[in-house]
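Hello,

Our lab assistant flagged a job as stuck in the queue for most of the afternoon. It eventually completed. Since we weren't sure the result was trustworthy after the delay, we are filing this so someone can double-check. Below is the sequence as submitted and the structure that was eventually returned. Let us know if re-running is recommended.
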Amino acid sequence: MRASRLVGVALFVAFAVVPAFGSSVSARGRDPQQPRVSPAVKADSDGLRALAAKTPVLPLERVELTINPPKLLGDVSAMTIDKHGNIYIFQRPDAKKGTLEDPIVVVDATGHFLRSFGKGLDPMSHGIKVDPAGNLWTVDAHTSMVRKFTPAGKLLLQVSVGDIPEPNRPFCGATDIAFEKNGHFLIADGYCNARVIEYAADGTKIRQWGKKGTGPGEFQLVHDVTIAPDGTIFIADRENGRLQWFDSDGKFLGQKHFGGQVFSAQVAANGMVYVGTHARDTSGYDIDSYIFQFDPRSGKILGRVDGFAHQLTVGPDGSLYPGPVNIKIGHDPKATSIVVYRPKK
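-- returned structure --
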């Protein structure tokens, strides 16, 4: 019981330590290089680093793809791919910095620019996925709007998740989407509501489950959701620093604590779950961030990649598409490239 209380304290302190992705610490009058942390948060982050130190490095190489012709991107929140290997980049346009105005940018496997679309639709781009039929879905973390597009950018469906406790807060809405075999889809409504919502294919709400907390089946920010071939649902419980998994009815099945923050989770075709983590006591997302390969069947962590994965997609060949490149708190680089981790040849 005492340990649970200590973890709970660390989690709530962590909200004041590392802000939401893309926000600035220095804007709040604090040196981003000197984050204030409690001993509990420090110990939790040290645990994550220790886990990484004893985990072997996966045979993946970091490949930086330059967009050609160059397109200036804002903060890249997520990436996904289609069956042709085309990469869909979900970025946050910034008119003041002259970035591309369309939040959805499509390039081929070499980085060649194909098209972009979605201007004005997503003020806080967050999650993006391709469904089994090849349609593209986006999730906005401010308005909690979920949209379905054709690969060419035709809008097919809009779902308003609603129930936003703080409508004026930039990050108070939905975060990600996953698809069930029966055509239903799950929305991670993570920032303020800490819940998972199931919808029918036409956008009709069926049910929801989850609440804020540190116990089994409770969340401190549902940041990512993914579904295994057997129907098991995996949740990146960000501020609790853990991966949780459930059956198709939302019944709690298990959990794995990694430490720090668990931003992302994605199931690969072979059943492995890739989990993106970040230490709480560092000032930049490109510091002490790791993507772990986790086997839920054995409960073992099999390997790691050193890098930050805000959201994550795993390609059929095992390539990892982690979203941002060179992101630091309080620092907004001008990006014309993306990073992919590909199997070494």
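-- support follow-up --
The delay was a queue issue, not a problem with the job. The result is valid. The radius of gyration is 18 Å. The CA atoms of residues 193 and 211 lie 7 Å apart.
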